[in-house]
Amino acid sequence: NVMMTQSPTSLAVSAGEMVSLSCKSSENLYSSTYKENYLAWYQKKSGQSPKLLIFYASHRASGVPDRFIGSGSGTDFTLTIRSMQAEDTADYYCARHYSSLWTFGGGTKLELK
Amino acid sequence: EVQLVESGGGLVQPGRSLKLSCAASGFTFSNYYMAWVRQAPKKGLEWVATISTSGSRTYYPDSVKGRFTISRDNAKSSLYLQMNSLKSEDTATYYCARVAGLGGYFDYWGQGVMVTVSS
Q: Which of B8, B38, B40, B45 has its CA 20 to 30 A from that of A45?
């Protein structure tokens, strides 16, 4: 089974700070056929449905602010928030989507200091 | 506007069954794979099931395989999750999600429906 490991499990940052969240896969998520990494990032705020932020590791979903940046390839991925805003307080999940199996990471809880 | 509206949740005893529904609108339902994802209280997100556009192919993680069945009615733009032999660990909010792209990421989500398995 593919494992997705996120770190840290939680962190608190001040408004305006840059934040980097890590996601590591136990399997290579890069498709040489389609030249994409099958890795997505989701934001889950308390009491709300999950929201797609990033797909194919680095493509921002429609309407997502450009302070959210996805990067990485293969097994190591990062979600960067360039300048933390109060509304970014949420849980963040990476997820592998490949070959009709989906696996979420354990999540990172991000709070405003 | 894409909308996914779940229904059918509630309190059910261990070992019993429950069927969730998801009504889709705002897109051509028959063109998309669909999925169910759940979140247990104070836990992370967990993928539960995915179904192909025609319904001919279904996919499950080991945690629900043999107990849950995903299905769809393209004429009604509706997605279903039949849950049998329910366990306390199935207690969660269940989300219906649209699957997009190659391999499939979840681009739209419903508001979720709560399922509580308890005696």
A: B8
Selection from A32, A33, A43, A40 nearest residue A58 by Cα = A40
Give B37's contacts (C-beta < 8 A, 6+ positions apart): A50, B45, B46, B47, B48, B94, B95, B97, B106, B109
Tell me which H or E stretch contains B94. strand B92-100
Length of chain A: 113
Give me the residues paired with residue A91 across strands.
A44, A109
Q: C-alpha B9: how far from its chain's center? A: 11
Q: Answer for the pair A10, A108: CB distance below 8 angstroms, yes or no.
A: yes
Q: How many CB pairs under 8 A join A and B?
A: 70
| Per-residue pLDDT tens over the stretch A19-36 | 999 999 999 999 998 899
For chain A positions 17-46, those within 8 Å of chain B (CB to CB) are 31, 34, 36, 38, 40, 42, 44
Structure tokens at A66: 């450009």
- Pick the residue of B45, B50, B64, B95 with the most A CBs within 10 A to test the interface with A by mutation: B45
pLDDT tens by residue, B25-55 = 999 999 999 999 999 999 999 999 999 999 9
Instruction: Sort residue A58 into left (φ over 0), alpha (ψ -120 to 50) or beta.
Output: alpha
Mean pLDDT of chain B: 97
